[in-house]
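Bug report (template v2)

What were you trying to do?
Predict the complex of my protein with zinc ion.

What happened?
Run completed; filing so the output is reviewed.

Input:
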Amino acid sequence: MPRTFSDQWYRISDLRVALRPGVSVRLHEERGEPWYVFHERAHAGFFRVNPATYRFISLLNVDATLDQVWRASLQTQPEETPGQEEVFELIVALYRANLIYVEGGVDESKILDRFQRKKAKPFLTRLSELLFMRIPLWDPDAWLTRHSRHIDRLFSVPFRCLALMVFAWALVEFVLAGPRAWQQASSILQLNNLLLLYVAVFLSHLLHELSHAAMCKYFGGEVRTMGVMLLLLTPLPYVDLSSSWTFRDKYQRAWVDSAGMLSDALLGAIATLVWAYSPPGVVNELAYNLMFSTVVYTVLFNINPLMRFDGYYILSDLVQIPNLHEKARQQFLKLWRERVLKVPVLEDDVTKPSERWGLLGFFLTSNIYRLMVMTGIVLFVADQYFGVGLLVAFALALTSFVQPTLRMLAPLKNPLFLFQHKRFVRRTGIGFALVLATVMVIPMPDSRILDGVVEARHYTPLFTESGGLVVQTHVPNGQWVEAGELLVTLENPELETEIEGVQAQLAMATTQESKALTEGSIDLLPIRERTLSLQAVLTTLSAQREALLVRAPHAGIWVDQESKVRQQAWMARGAELGRVVDDRAQVFLGVIRQEAATALLGLQEEESRVRIEGERDILHTAQRFSLVPHSQSTLPSAALSPLAGGTVAVSTADPSGKQAVEAFFLLRAELSPEPERDLHDPLRHGRAGWIKIRLPARPLASQAWLAATQYFQRRYKL
Ligand SMILES: [Zn+2]
C-alpha cells in the first residue's frame, strides 16, 4: 500500500535532481505492457520501471526541488504519483545505479543513511549473504569484443551442427557404457576425489558462465562484470548478464539464459567421449567428474524453473513476466492481505485472474521445492560438518522462513490497522494463544511403534549330547507333538562299542569282586571302587544312548528349522537338532534404541497393539510389559536385520546376522491368549512384528522436541 507521506521526506525534499545526460531510455513491450529500461553506458547501470514511475522520473529537473516536482505531479496526476516513501526509495535506487545526478552534490549520508540503516541486518542474515556472496573481479567486455569474431563463429550454423553431432555421438556412447558410468558414480563423493570434482565443477562453471557472456555479446549486449560467487563456501565463477534486459526480443533473452546449459551439454558430451575412449588414469577420472558435474548440475538444478537458476530465467523471459519470483510473492502477499488480513489493497493490479492463479501456483510449488532442496543441502553439509550445517540451517530458516513471515505480518505494526480491525486482531490473537497453549501445555497422547519379534513363551532347543547318525525321523517338521513323544532316533556305533567295552570291564570287575569275597582277599576295597566307577561310567553312557532317542520335553510343535535332520545325516556332538515350540502362548520382544530408552521410562502398564508379519491385517493385543534392564547387542532374531526387511542395523562381520551395530534395550510383552487359535495354525515363533505402545501423554511441543533430539542423537551421535 503506497503511503503518501513519509516522515523521512525532509531528507530529500530540497534536493534538485535530474537524469544523467548519458542515460538512454528504451520502451519495451512485455506481455503487452510497456516497460521502460534506463541504461547508463559508462557504468553499465540498468534500471527498469513501469510507466507511472517513468512519468514521475521524466518530470525530474534541476529547476525544481524534489518536493516541488512531487507536489506538481500530485496535482496533475494524483492517481499515478508515487507516495513520498516510494519516491525516496526510487531516488536512492536511481542514485545507486548512477542514473541521476544531484545539483550541487549531495551529502551521501543524507540519502543513503536511511538505506544503510535498513541495511543493518542481523548477524545471521549477513551470514546467509556470506554463504551466497558475489565478488566482482573482472570486466570481460573488452576481451569479448576482441574475440567477437570467434564468438560469431561459435554460434554459426556449421558449429551448431557439429555440436549437435558430437552430442548425439556422446549420447550413444553414454547409453552403451551406462552400467560402467553408474558404477563409477559411487566413488564420486569420496574424499580422495573431492579435489578433482571441484576442479571439474569449477571448469564447467567457468565455461558455462563464459558461454552466457558470449551469447549476450553475440546479440549486442554488454558484459561488464565477471567474478566469483560463494555457493555454500565453494567459490564458483559468475557473470552479470543484466544488460540482456535491454534486448527487445524475448527469444534473444531466453537464448542468453540457455547459453550456459548449451555449454554444459557440449562439455558433458566431449567429456563423455574422452571418458569412453581413454584408459584409466587422471584424464579419464577428470573426464568422468566433468560428465558428472555437467549432467547433475544441469538436470537437477539448472533446467528446473522452480529455483533461481537458468531454467527460471528462461521461463521468466518466455512468459514475459520479469522477476517472476517477486511477482509471484507479491500475488501471494496481496491475496494474504486481501483475504486474510482484510486490508483494502489499492494497487493498480493489472494481472489477469488466470495469471494470478498461475503466479500463486508457481509461488507455492517453487517454495515447497526450495524447502526440499534447502533441507537436502543442510543435511548434506551437516553430515560432513555438523556445526557448519547447523549455521547454514539457521541462516536459511531465517531468510526464507522467519523474515518472510514477519513481512507478512507487517501490517500488524500499523496502529491504524490495529484500530480498524480490532475484532479481527483480537479473535486471531485469542486463536493463536489457544493454539500455542494446546501445543505447549495440554498433554496429548503419545505413542511409539517398536520393531520386534514374536517368541513362543515356552520353547526348548534340542541338542545332541554325543553326536550320532540319524536313522529315523518319527515326526515331520511342523507337527504337533505331546510330551515324551519320540522325535528322532540317532545311532552312535562308537558309543555302542564303548558301552560294550565298559560292560565287559564291569563283568570282569564283578567276577574279581565275588572271587575276592569268597577267597577273603585283602584287595577287596580297590576292586569295589573300580566297580563303582565303572557303574557310574556305564550310567552316563546309557543316558547318552537313551538320549539318542530324542523325545519332546513338553508339548509343542516340532521345528527342524533348516531340515538338518535327514536320514543318514551325521549330527555332531552339541549340534542343535531343532526345537519344540509351544506356540499356544507367545511373547513379543520389542527393540528399543538406546536414545529412545529414556522416553519409555514412564511406560504405562496397559494393553498394546501388535501386528505380526504374515498376518498384518490381524490386530493382536499384548499386556504385562517388562523392560529387560540391561542393554544388549545380540538381536533375538535375524528377522529384525535389514536383510530380512527389519530396521535394526547389524554388523556385516557377524555371520549370524544378529549382531546389532548399536546396543539396544528389549521390551517384553505377553501376547493375549487366543482360545480360538488352532494347533495347526502356522507357527508365529520367530516372526517379525510391530508393537504400538502408549507413552505418558505430554504436550505436542515436548513430543516434537524429544523426537528432534532423538533424531540428532541418532544421526550425529551427539
Ligand atoms: Zn547459467
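What did the reviewer find?
Residues 321-408 form one domain. The two ends are 49 Å apart (CA to CA).
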